[in-house]
């Protein structure tokens, strides 16, 4: 009976057993191994170490280091084996033996440090330190320490020992915003790391242990003492003989601290702004911004800023057209001419052959934190607009020449708009040459109306006037013919537009030639195309008339004495702004003088600082 009951119980429990086995198997399959959990939670991405970028001039010489931070990544082969060994012996003697965590090192470090009363060895492995430097903070908490161990475990699985060591040597901090052994060598000794002596290698190796305490600049003696202790370690571990160690200790350490390169602020501030524009154009941000508004536009702009920061942190070289001699000449001309006055000034200079921006002055005694007036100040252009909006379009449409006639008598282009000549006089019929040379308002307005506002504005729209509004170019906006705009133009924009009088063509003037990575690969460059604005005949006529302004007209004080020079003066309403824009055979430049806050500068009008600055730049 018991046997029968037993079999019956087995038959009844069998489905339950199968049922339990099924679910147990499912549960078992969901249990993850330690490796799987760590793999899922601790994600090791490809490491891209932030590096310093630089901006170079037309000769390839750096004039600004953009330190985010100052780091120069080098391959492991370029790092001397002696320097590697110093770090291994002082930080992690069993680096090539452990799997990222070395429990024995904790006890060893305690013993060695107790004997010397100094922290000669750390308990963290090099892999743990690398994990902390790249992925974690330096806070002293248990959770951070556990995370450090897990990240070290993952790094050891993913990278070889040599890769970990090389990465470590490129990430460690050497104080003074310096990261990595190559940057440290260049900052403290102005040498590449593979050119350092053993004494110098041991000296920089002291710093990461306690960057403030062993800062060579502020605490040289502390660093020197620790250097000698590191050399003793190398002797003790048989990497140096006693004689070698003694010789290295006695070698004098002469710091040659490298000053951060930061010159030509007037120009570099514009380059940084243009870089953002170049990246936006190259990666489609400009189109996104154009089609967005409100909060969406703000979000896109934030993404663009983040992208610019990412590019600058990758160690790029920004190649520019800066001409150091012309830059010094331009800033000196603005500052010296306006010295002692209460007015400001700005200038932009473009090379005629390349159409590149070679010099900028953002203001008198410009400081990098300031508003850069060369491209950020939008002012009423006054009569400097006449060649672009009145004379050249009229010549282009009619085929008129310098000796063609126009009336300079009183003229009303519409009811209530009857501007006068500056002198208040009427001059009868005059040549176009004389009308431009003496800046007769009534003659310029007549030409504008005879061309037709829509036709005249169609030429103006071809230039990169960023703040030109629909209101400005409305057919009823006759004030624009004499320089009256809602916002106005910047000195750089005016200079750019005047380059159309070089040969009749226009291309947006740029400072940046290209952006390359550390290997020299081109990442970004402008793809601008030249556009014909004026016929060759119109260009020739305008060059003759612009030359007359300097020879016998309102711009005589601007005459630089070059084989060719032509330009145009400009004065805004109530003498708030003084302008001179023009060109020689080599350069095109625009100069503005005025006050940051609207104010009258008529007291300087006879002195003509705008013309003097232009002349000093172009001479």
UniProtKB/TrEMBL annotation:
Which protein, by its recorded name, is this? Transglycosylase domain-containing protein
Q: Where is the Glycosyl transferase family domain?
A: 68-234
- EC number from the UniProt entry: 2.4.-.-
State the InterPro entries in the record. Answer: Beta-lactam/transpept-like, Glyco_trans_51, Glycosyltr_51/Transpeptidase, Lysozyme-like_dom_sf, PBP_transglycosylase, PCN-bd_Tpept
What keywords appear on the UniProt entry?
Carboxypeptidase, Cell membrane, Cell shape, Cell wall biogenesis/degradation, Glycosyltransferase, Hydrolase, Membrane, Multifunctional enzyme, Peptidoglycan synthesis, Protease, Transferase
Q: Which domain of life is it from?
A: Bacteria
Q: Which PANTHER family match?
A: BINDING PROTEIN TRANSPEPTIDASE, PUTATIVE-RELATED, PENICILLIN-BINDING PROTEIN 1B
